[in-house]
Amino acid sequence: MRNQLVTQLQSKGISDTAVLEAIRQIPRHLFLNSSFEDFAYQDKAFPIGAGQTISHPYTVAFQSQVLQVQKEHKVLEIGTGSGYQTAVLCKLGAKVYSVERQNELFKATSLLLPKLGIRPKHLSFGDGYKGLPQHAPFDRIIVTAGAPSIPQALMAQLKIGGRLVIPVGEKEQVMTLLIRKNETQFEKHELGEFKFVPLLENKN
Ligand code: SAH
């Protein structure tokens, strides 16, 4: 079933062989509630608890491809959720730092990933709008929830030459890639429309 999913992703335009290989290897059905198990290799989003969803495999593949992760890159992920995207980044050889604001998901995913032999560098419970200044700068930053605008803190935590991929918008989002040119300048690319759950700000 995973091979079929990979073929489907290729037909939708995913060509990065490392990304496709990661998807071929990662047991997505173990990131979902068992009632969705039979559908895990369809290109669909599913509920993961706390009102959140696991992203479509195409979305995960697309963001991972755009990121151009290399081995040993320090990658910051905002929105750990089920941990599936985290697992893809780990398979690509990145040192992954991931932040989640729903405690229920943070706890469940912190237990799940090591059971599957997947070891991100750091999982944290908190507000991803702030990034992780204590671990910055990052080679790559990926946001997996829809942001009304690009958080300044995340731009500040990106290395020069680094790439930040983030869906921007309220109801629908435009996948946006920022490449940091120097201290003050970022090159911006808009890469099509997607639909994400919102990136929420903490109330306190
Ligand atoms: N990559 C995840 C996507 C989950 S959906 C997966 O495929 O499973 C997006 C996630 O972003 C949700 O878990 C949501 O709780 C989280 N999120 C939303 N706003 C956030 C914030 N400000 N900081 C950290 N995580 C946030």
Automatic annotation (TrEMBL):
Gene3D superfamilies: Vaccinia Virus protein VP39
Active site: 55
Molecular function GO labels: protein-L-isoaspartate (D-aspartate) O-methyltransferase activity
Subcellular location: Cytoplasm
GO cellular component term of the entry, any: cytoplasm
InterPro entries attached to this UniProt entry: PCMT, SAM-dependent_MTases_sf
Reaction(s) the record says it catalyses: [protein]-L-isoaspartate + S-adenosyl-L-methionine = [protein]-L-isoaspartate alpha-methyl ester + S-adenosyl-L-homocysteine
Predominant place of localization: cytoplasm
Keywords: Cytoplasm, Methyltransferase, S-adenosyl-L-methionine, Transferase
PROSITE patterns, per the entry: PCMT
EC number: 2.1.1.77
HAMAP family listed in its UniProt record: PIMT (MF_00090)
Protein family according to the UniProt entry: Belongs to the methyltransferase superfamily. L-isoaspartyl/D-aspartyl protein methyltransferase family.
NCBIfam families named in the record: pimt, PRK00312.1
Protein name: Protein-L-isoaspartate O-methyltransferase
Species of the source: Flavobacterium fontis
Gene: pcm
